[in-house]
């Protein structure tokens, strides 16, 4: 299997870190929405795993809200940045960051979490079998009655409404040009990111990287949850407002581990 995620998030992590840092401005509001979901479906839940946590924006803000949080990511650069940010935010005692692979999550933890979170399109990197295996392994580390949430993740229905072949995005002095190709047979986005930086009145080419992302329809994630043993308890349009899902909603699905 082509391990593009390691090239993307480890070998060339500086590129994604620029775009990820831009998401911090939404992190406090995102965390409040997630906290409301946990309080609604597991009122006493306190211990949370932020799976594929990046540089910790959600984990840190959940820790600020009083949760005991672990963030796991296989990028050492992201984890080092998350640990430093936890120190800056003063939540080092409430959040721990671990370098690890989500595909082996049950090798790092026991059955200890009240809630596990995947946030912001962090599935679809490999293939459906691998994603289902992650769901099964998350089941092992979640307490009976605990939650598994996939939130703020692009759905096929939503992506179809805004797909563009070429996208230009600005992040201060950094500019990204995305060249997108969508394979309708496999529902897979293949994209090349080209990174430029302003150099006076000119642009300096910095680097480029390719990604490949399977984009799931909401009903596919529901099926995968159930096949992995989870009970789906809610589908939302927004993790912030808790509105119910609509046809063009992103993936915001809350599942629960059955109590035997």
Could you describe the 3D structure shown?
The protein has helices at residues 4-11, 13-21, 27-41, 57-64, 76-89, 128-141, 156-162, 218-227, and strands spanning 47-51, 68-73, 95-99, 113-119, 142-153, 166-171, 174-183, 188-199, 202-214, 231-235, 251-256. It folds into two domains: 4-154 and 217-256, Vaccinia Virus protein VP39 (Rossmann fold, 3-Layer(aba) Sandwich), CATH 3.40.50.150; 158-214, N-terminal domain of TfIIb (Single Sheet), CATH 2.20.25. With 260 residues, it is an alpha/beta fold. The longest helix has 15 residues, at 27-41. The protein is globular and about 60 Å long. The model has no long low-confidence stretch (mean pLDDT 97).
Give me the secondary-structure topology:
Layout: H1 4-11, H2 13-21, H3 27-41, E1 47-51, H4 57-64, E2 68-73, H5 76-89, E3 95-99, E4 113-119, H6 128-141, E5 142-153, H7 156-162, E6 166-171, E7 174-183, E8 188-199, E9 202-214, H8 218-227, E10 231-235, E11 251-256
Parallel strand pairs: 1-2, 1-4, 2-3, 4-5
Antiparallel strand pairs: 5-11, 6-7, 7-8, 8-9, 10-11
Gist of the model:
The chain has 260 residues and is α/β, with parallel strands linked by helices.
What's the shape?
globular
Quaternary state reads: single chain
Helix content: 25-40%
Task: Give start-end ranges of low-pLDDT stretches.
Answer: none
Q: Which descriptors would you attach to this protein?
A:
N-terminal domain of TfIIb; Rossmann fold; alpha/beta; single chain
């Amino acid at each position: 299997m082509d391990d593009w995620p390691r090239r993307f998030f480890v070998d060339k992590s500086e590129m994604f870190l620029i775009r990820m840092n831009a998401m911090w401005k939404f992190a406090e509001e995102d965390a409040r929405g997630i906290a409301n979901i946990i309080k609604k479906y597991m009122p006493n839940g306190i211990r949370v795993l932020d799976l594929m946590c990046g540089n910790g924006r959600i984990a840190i803000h959940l820790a600020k809200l009083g949760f005991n949080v672990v963030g796991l990511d296989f990028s050492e650069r992201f984890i080092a940045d998350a640990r430093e940010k936890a120190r800056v935010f003063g939540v080092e005692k409430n959040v721990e960051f671990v370098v690890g692979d989500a595909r082996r999550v049950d090798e790092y933890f026991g059955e200890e979490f009240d809630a596990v979170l995947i946030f912001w399109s962090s599935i679809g990197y490999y293939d459906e079998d691998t994603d289902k295996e992650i769901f099964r392994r998350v089941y092992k580390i979640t307490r009976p009655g605990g939650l598994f949430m996939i939130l703020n993740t692009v759905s096929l229905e939503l992506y179809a409404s805004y797909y563009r072949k070429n996208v230009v995005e600005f992040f201060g002095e950094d500019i990204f040009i995305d060249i997108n190709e969508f394979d309708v047979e496999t529902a897979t986005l293949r994209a090349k990111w080209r990174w430029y930086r302003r150099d006076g009145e000119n642009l300096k080419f910095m680097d480029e990287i390719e990604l490949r992302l399977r984009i799931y329809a909401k009903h596919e994630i529901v099926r995968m949850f159930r096949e992995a043993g989870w009970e789906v308890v809610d589908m939302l349009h927004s993790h912030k407002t808790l509105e119910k899902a609509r046809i063009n909603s992103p993936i915001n699905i809350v599942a629960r581990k059955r109590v035997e």
